[in-house]
Write a structure and sequence with these properties.
This protein is mainly alpha-helical. It has one domain: Orthogonal Bundle (Arc Repressor Mutant, subunit A). The chain is 37% helix and 8% strand. The longest helix is centred in the N-terminal third of the chain and has 10 residues. The radius of gyration is 12 Å and the shape is globular.
């Protein structure tokens, strides 16, 4: 796992928990908003909002979090072509999404 220290005082405690969990997703892999929400005892929508506010992208790889039925959002845009390109560069194939 790549280390990335989040500077103190940036983000809410919940956002920091979301960003820290995103850091555990290995390059070339994805997780869903629901997977993240289950581990954080939250909702997928709350996870998405915290990822949307991520000031450390792409060092904190929020692009590796996808919707259960599609790509999901990136930088406030749903089904983002930029997110698809970033994942493709990591070798992620999003067939059927």
């Amino acid at each position: 796992m790549r280390r990335c220290h989040l500077p103190p005082g940036v983000g809410t405690p919940f956002q920091r928990r979301v960003w820290a969990l995103a850091l555990t997703i290995p390059r070339g892999r994805v997780r869903t908003y629901g997977w993240m929400a289950d581990r954080l005892h939250s909702s997928p929508r709350a996870v998405g909002q915290a990822l949307k506010a991520n000031p450390f992208a792409p060092r904190v790889p929020c692009h590796r979090v996808v919707a259960a039925d599609g790509v999901g959002g990136y930088a406030g845009q749903w089904n983002s072509a930029r997110k698809r390109r970033m994942l493709a560069r990591e070798g992620v194939r999003l067939e059927g999404r």
